[in-house]
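Hello,

Following up on my earlier ticket. Below are the two sequence lines again, exactly as submitted.
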Amino acid sequence: MKKRFRLTLLAGAVLGLSIAAVASAAQARHGVLAVKQARVGAPTALAGYTEIPELAVQQASYKLGAATNPGIVLASDQTNDATAKITIFSPPGYTSNLTQAQGTTVGKAYAVVKAIIAGVPLLLPLQGPVVVGNPADPSLVAAYAQCKGPTDPPTPQEVLVLNTSFQGQTISVPDFINTAGPYVTQEICLLPPSQAPFNAQLVVANFTVNGVWTNASTAGQYQWVADFTPFNGNTPNPAETVEVRTYVGLPSSFTLKRLKSKSSIVKFSGKIAIGGVSPAGLQVRLFYGLKSKPAPNFLNPSEAGTLGTNGKSVRSKALKSKGTFAFTRKKVKKKTYFQARLDDEWALSGGCIGPSPTGQPIPCLQELISPMTSNQILVKPPKKKRKHR
Amino acid sequence: MKRAALVVAVALGLAVPAASSPTGTPGVTPTQILIGGTVPLSGQASAFGAVGPAANAYFKYVNAHGGVNGRKIKYLYRDDGYDPARTLEETRRLVEQDKVFAIFNTVGTEHTLAIRGYLNALGVPEVFAGTGAAKVGRGHKQYRWTMGYLPSFEGEGAIYGHYVVKHRPKARIAVLYEDSDYGKDLLRGLKRGLGKHAGQIVSTASYEVTDSGVQSQVAHLRASHADTFMLFALPTFAISAFVNAYKLGWHPRFFVSAVSIEPSIMAVARRNTGGRETNGALSFAFVKDPTSPAWKKDKAVALYKKILKRYDPGGRVNDVYNWYGMTVAFSMVDALKHAGRNLTRASLLRAATHMNERNNPFLLPGVSVKTSPTNYFPIAKARMVRYQKTLWVLFGPLVTPR
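Thanks for your patience. The regenerated structure is below:
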């Protein structure tokens, strides 16, 4: 989702905006997938999710065999029915380590929920650590019994707890992890708003999980998959379950460089390469701001990282097949940080690749390209020339 | 004979009274000082709950560096759900079952008042309670064992009044206040500060802490066409007031009571009003704001982060109530030090009523903790702050909230 669309969505001034599936019938040609900008404002015909929910997974590395350490974003427009369950499937071919010690902090979480505070409906930010929980904890045992699928083991292989809080009240959300064939699944179950603290309904959640996954060791096309099941009142409504995905091409890379230029301007060039995808038609954004890390970065769950509130942006021209891009800006007056970003606003134009990992005929609404954030460059104002008298 | 009795007592495993506390002061042993208190870990004011764990973290840090006069501090803090009846119940438990030496850092005015009679009857010190109410600060003649910590609420209200007279002389003022000593003190102070301009208060509305919201009160205040909104409300009601005003298209200049200016509270209000209501809001502060770039390189901020990380890892660095918890814990340690090795309840009271603490690193420069047997408002200075986009920014000279 584009930064400004996410902010708009969070501001509640939603004019039918959302990310949407790309309905193009174009198919991958020569094994290279084409992309298209995800359109906003295209409602679904579904009762539970009138706006398409989002899964966007940004990985810490896109190198073969490297630690994945993903930053996962799950979003559902506040006009949708509240979400009861989200099941995330990691890409087949990725390896996993589900043996972290209980109590270990493996990441952090930032979420925005629709809530009711002192009688007023509003959007509430929550944040906190992601901690490895004890599957034998009675509250987690009870939560797992409610959440687990029919083929899941009696005890989860690992449970992560997203311990978010606001005003001293903690909203702990368990994330039950199991291996299921070639996948590692994460199952997240939420309370109906009427029973949740602050009557919370999830709008956006961004969390990192470090030390669990390792990228596949062979180049190829991979995908993260999420199935969203809405509530119907206080009861989960499996019939309205929808699927959304994130495409990851391995290997991929994204760099930004500053070029030499005259002092009145600042020039940048960069290159993006996504395994298995032609970058032709993609656009990247150049973010700039006085604060460090001006671009969104889902590896840093926070207001700035998730929503990109540290910077403003300009958009590149459509990239050609080599994936190179360039930006020219006026000289800066103050120390300014620059960072490029492939936002979570691009989808495969041919729609989702392959059937649902569940084996069920769940409609797949879109497959986003994994968002990426480039390195950061600090630009200082040019030194003033001394006048010789 | 005495020696023989002592040997028998030791052989039976009986506790030996502390050599350094000949009176057998409850909660004090040669190695430990047991103190207790209540904080709202749940309920409408759970935002304040962080002051308990944060103060405890500071005590653990002090313990790791040798403790106070050779004793470690053990702090039992219990949840009272911000319900004065539960405050009394939990305090009785702390005093009668846990045998605490003193009650420290009770959060809330009604809560402090609920236990004041009980503790004073027993001669148990109740020090540095989280209140700036006049009933507490000026009640020392009758209740000498009870002392608050916050600047006077009435003084805070007066500062806003003075500010309005000087900078917004034509202001039309609406006031939302909690129907409690906290809210009434602020309103009384505001009127005192306004002086002959008190007639510029064109509308007032109160709420009960048990109310579900303040929509109707805000609508009533808006109808007065006031251009200045005094928000003497707890955090959740403050957020509600900001958002309700925004939804009604009312954009007055806000003055926010200092207990509700925690940055995450303001962030929620800002996000849900597009910054329209929060930008330019005024308040006052006596502690540094660890979230502000102004204190980024401050040694106290580094110490605070270190303590929080080590002793309260679940505590959020950006939560200023954590900072406050350490501020008040610093003063408690100071008081315990000055109470001496022969620690008694009377010596703690003597120390607490003779504070002259100028080195509390968590307070703003120029703000000190100063008390006397006739001055039970430890914090006598503060500074005005203005909310600019996403941050509180200090401005103006030190002011005296009296």
